[in-house]
Amino acid sequence: VQLQASGGGLVQAGGCLRLSCAASGLTFPSYAMDWFRQAPGKEREFVAIISRNGGRTEYADFVQGRFTISRDNAKNMLYLQMNNMIPEDTAVYYCGADPTISRRPAYWGRGTLVTVFS
Hints:
The protein has 118 residues and is an all-beta fold. The chain is built from no helices and eleven strands. It has strands at 2-6, 9-12, 17-24, 32-38, 45-50, 57-59, 67-72, 77-82, 91-98, 107-108, 112-117. Strands 2, 4, 5, 6, 9, 10 and 11 form a seven-stranded mixed sheet that branches. A four-stranded antiparallel sheet has the order 1-3-8-7, with no helix packed on it. β9 and β10 (107-108) form a beta hairpin.
């Protein structure tokens, strides 16, 4: 199983980024998919989850309507659109394949660094 996150970078506060996660080696539609993040010196935290068919999504409270998780099962791709970003969003973002829709991924990808400057 391989999950490769990409799309991170440097963005000014108020700006936006779109993260992608390419999945291979698993039956992608069989997994809910998660985004987590880990800021410097902090523990990894949940960001968002999307159901197997994309019909249901949930977000961490700190998202406050700024992020949108989506997926394309035909392409084995997961996305996270992040708008109105703030410096506190600075973190390494990870995607995860979640077989039990429990916010506990069985598989993790390599992260992508997002840095938000004011």
